[in-house]
Every structure is written in C-alpha cells, then in structure tokens.
Amino acid sequence: MEIKLYSGICFNENKFSETSDFISIEVPLSIAVNNIPFTVTMQTPGNEADLARGLLFTENIFKSQECSPLIEVISKNGEGYIESINVQIPSKFILKDFAGTRNVISASSCGVCGKTTLDDTHCETVNNSDKLQAELVPEMFRLINEGQKHFRKSGGTHAAGAFTINGKLLVLHEDIGRHNAVDKVIGFLIHNRLMEKAKCITVSGRLSYEIVEKAKSANIPFIAAVSAPSTLAIDNAQESGITLMAFCRNDKFTVYSNPHQILINTNVPVK
Q1: Is 56 exposed, middle or buried (0-12, 13-18, 19+ CB in 10 A)?
Q2: pTM above 0.85, yes or no
Q3: Quick one: pLDDT at residue 268?
Q4: DSSP three-state, residue 11
Q5: Is the separation of the CB atoms in 28 and 75 below 8 Å?
Q6: pLDDT tens digits for 160-191?
Q7: Is 101 exposed, middle or buried (0-12, 13-18, 19+ CB in 10 A)?
Q8: What's the CATH architecture for 132-263?
Q9: Contact predicate 208/230, CB 8 Å
C-alpha cells in the first residue's frame, strides 16, 4: 500500500467542506552495507531491494551484475513498512570506500543532497550505436501515464520507466522521489538481467543532474522527461553522449543534447 486516505477541509466557492484524499506515503529507509550505515533516504514503501541495488549501482559502490547481494530486512515500523535494511556484499566487489559519502538524510526530491562531494565523472561517456525513432517517445509516455496507478489516486508520486530501443516497456516504478523511482528501475533491471536491453529512461518530473548521472552509470543513452531540464543536466548529457529530451507532452518534445541520435519517420537523422 503506497497511498493512504486522509481527511481535510476544502475551501471552494467561499465555503469550507469536508473532504478525503489519497496521499502518497513517505517513510525513511535506512540502508547499511555490510552493517556499516550508508544513507537514509525518504521513499515510498515497496521495492526496497531494487532501490538499494540501484542506488549502490549508480553511486559506483557495487557495480557487479553477476553477484547477487543478500538484502536483509532489519526492522519495520509500527505500520509494517520496512525502515531499515542491510546489504551484504563480498568485500572484493565493493569498488570504493562509501563511509562518509552520504552522511545526512537524502530527501525524496534530491538524489545528491546527502553526499559530501560530487564525483568527478564528467569525462565518462555512454557506449551507444543505437538511434531512437522520434515517434516512439510520445508512445512511451502514454504507456507510463497508463501505468501510474498511484499517481492517478494521489497526485503525489513520480514515475520512471525503462524502455528498449524499439519502445518496449521493461519496467515502471513509482515513488515520491524522482531519483528513487530511477534507482528502483535500475535495480529491477539488474535483478532481472535486463540492463543491456534498456536504452531509454523516462521521468515524470523535471530532469536534473543526478538523473543524468544515474543514466550514465547504467550506460543508458536516452533520457526523456515530462518537465524542464536544468542547465547542468543538459551539459552533462552532452558531454556524456546522452540524448536528453524534455517537455515530452502532447505528442511533442524538445531535444537538448546529441540530437543526431534521434531519427524521424523518414529515417533521416536530426541535425
């Protein structure tokens, strides 16, 4: 259950009336690695294993897709939501010292606010030879909109989806945080051995630096968002070889980086 019914008083037409609304649930999740505290992130309950796996992958701490870590539920709160997990990883697979990299709570709206530094990854590029047919982008968002069952009830969750180069939906996850939704998607792809098939990530909100970083770490060359991008997201995508599309609404979108990787229906690359 990712939503809960709350009562309120609605002001409309110069009067108050009682109302009930479904509200998206937000709870803290404490993640430890080999019993060493890593981070506390605010998230929507559910798919905690995918979230942890995706987050450790995109943080470049545990990148192996062959080794499946043991994820233990340490505790739950009074309502039965998981509030603490521990990820057991053989030390030889841990790529960097994670102690101190995230030493404060990471809010649901930001994927980098819990970090003490930003990794210098500007020179990394994705490995891509595919081109995406432009007409597939609006269809991707139609599939995402159809799948956002919790958003339709509460209006309070973001969605991220992963698609093949032919526009097939591989996975859709909702969460109160954009970056959490992306991490859950990447974690699902890893768990189900689908990373090589994923070529495009869609995001229901705005597109900022940390989303591009997550796509880059997963070698996903296309990102599309409903809302606006930031300047840092565009610059990062351009340097990384990622095609960034934003304002994907009403069968339209704007390409802000590497447009040569987009094809129109005449099969002529956009220049």
Answers
A1: buried
A2: no
A3: 47
A4: strand
A5: no
A6: 999 999 999 999 999 988 889 999 999 999 99
A7: middle
A8: 3-Layer(aba) Sandwich (3.40)
A9: yes
